[in-house]
Amino acid sequence: MSPGVVEPCVVIGQGLAGDVEAHGEAGTQWYRPEVIELSTVLVLAGVVFIVCGLGVVVVQLRRGDTGFGLLRGESVETRRAVRRAIRDGETDDARVDELARQTFRMIPRLRWARYFFAGMFVLSIILLAVGDHTAGDTVLRVSQALLWAGLIVLDGVNRRRRDNYRGLRPTP
User: Fold this and answer.
1) By the 8 A CB rule, do 47 and 30 touch?
2) 2-26, pLDDT tens digit by residue?
3) Among 53, 84, 96, 104, which residue's beta carbon has the most beta carbons within 10 A?
4) Residue 170: DSSP 8-state
5) Membrane-spanning residues where (predicted)?
């Protein structure tokens, strides 16, 4: 590096070009600084962010806290009963029915979501089909397509469960 030149990088340790020349003969390097580009730092920060997010999700799922706050404060058995009632479409317990209906009211109905997910899925497939890609690009495009396909399926399942929920079972 020459003096006065600004490069987008993070330098770890000491040993800029001036320091190397001061410690050794011109042209020889005793100490080579490790240079990490800014893009590498940003990617590593993103990886750390994703790993932390996955850790939170795993801890929440292991404890049974799905929905991230929709049924917070309820017992594990009650949350399981509400999930079962939503999955089956009905329940015998009036309290579970009220909590299931409350859960449905708290989840926003985004009618445009399925079209957005479908558009992003198609865009991901187009980007995958067009041009030359490295292995990393291909993995990224395939993972994006899988993400949007999964969101389309999840949206469909949630809509079906909301539309099919009947509430309390009729007593014979």
Assistant:
1) no
2) 454 444 444 444 444 444 444 445 5
3) 96
4) P
5) 38-59, 112-130, 142-158
